[in-house]
Design brief:
The protein is an alpha/beta fold and 154 residues long. It has five helices and five strands. It has a single domain, classed as Nucleotidyltransferase, domain 5. A five-stranded mixed β-sheet has the order 3-2-1-4-5. This is Crossover junction endodeoxyribonuclease RuvC.
Length: 154
């Protein structure tokens, strides 16, 4: 199964693509969709949708795993939620089934406990995908963790 993991954001949307055929998980691709801070929010949403469409067309995921937004007080909360909405809409347009996970569930699935530190989750991602070097940037590594959670929780 090919799974696209998404770590939503406005400035950077992390993505990770894994393949689970043959009983092993392997990373196919990871990176970020970057938007320019000088652009309007609307233009940034267009960039996210456009780049995500390209990823979906290139990798043809059978499942998307998206991190659920964890609400807290921040000046960027609304923008991040809107960017996540663009991600969800784009996935729906391509009829990609979606599963969603809050950060605590991702940490639990990867590191064994919901309050794991970021480096513990990263180590688990590297172990599960048999990587010698950590995926970069952090948003891409987070997206791979989301994709793996999608596989483990199916």
């Amino acid at each position: 199964m090919r799974i696209l993991g998404i770590d939503p954001g406005l400035a950077r949307v992390g993505y990770g693509v894994i393949d689970t055929s043959g009983g092993q998980q392997r990373m196919l691709d990871c990176g970020i969709i970057r938007t320019e801070p000088g652009y309007s929010e609307g233009d940034r949403m267009v960039v996210i949708a456009s780049d995500l469409r390209q990823l979906i067309r290139a990798w043809r995921p059978e499942l998307a795993a998206v991190e659920k937004f964890f609400f807290y007080r921040s000046s960027t909360t609304i923008s991040v939620v809107q960017a996540r909405g663009v991600v969800m809409m784009t996935l729906a347009r391509f009829k990609v089934p979606v599963v969603e996970f809050p950060p605590m569930q991702i940490k639990l699935a990867l590191a064994g406990f919901g309050h794991a530190e970021k480096d513990e989750v990263l180590e688990a991602v590297m172990r599960e995908l048999n990587l010698t070097d950590p995926p970069r940037p952090d948003d891409a590594a987070d997206a791979l963790a989301v994709a793996l959670t999608g596989w483990f929780q199916r």
